[in-house]
Amino acid sequence: MENELLIEKATEDDIPILNEFINACYIGNDDNGPDTSSPEWTSVSKLIGGRRTTPEFLLKDMQNLDITIFKCTAKSDLQLVASCRAHNTDEDTIYSEMLCVSPTCQGKGVGKLMVAKVEELGRELKCKYHKIQVFSCRKGLIEWYEKLGFKENGKQIPLPGPTERAWFIKSDVTILIEMQKSL
């Protein structure tokens, strides 16, 4: 599948489709985005509600030199199949955030390719660590990251309250765990 995909830095022209795609991945369908009612679609809609991002937030990210948003499209029709936010938080660390993969591409190595793209950027920036934050209750996702070489580093992060992204907590799960691997 790798030869059928194109991973590149997203641009301001991609903001409308990225906004729709990311919110559908995280929160679910609002009648304007992809159909995420399928059980194959991995979302956190039982944990958080509202919007995960906004066009304004994505634009702000794209204007920040420490943040890169990658998009992955199918070469055949340029359909968006995955996205990920890479944040160079300091000279040692790059974070993967908002990793989203379409259910039609899950289990086919697309997420792994997106993580590898962030790691490639991290190496270019001379980062020593690649870190992620995961809901503590997402055991399957934690196991997936462990297969990619990530390990829990003991840091737990309480979920913040509502933000400019306008999402809110819907469950008792309010802890993110941090995982990392060396680059």
TrEMBL record:
The keyword Transferase applies. InterPro entries: Acyl_CoA_acyltransferase (IPR016181), GNAT_dom (IPR000182), MshD_Acetyltransferase (IPR050276). Keywords: Transferase. Residues 5-183 form the N-acetyltransferase domain. It holds the Pfam family Acetyltransf_1. Gene3D superfamilies: 3.40.630.30. Signal peptide: none annotated. Coiled coil: none annotated. The keyword DNA-binding does not apply. GO terms for molecular function: acyltransferase activity, transferring groups other than amino-acyl groups. CDD domains: NAT_SF. It comes from the Eukaryota. This is Putative glucosamine 6-phosphate N-acetyltransferase. It comes from Folsomia candida.
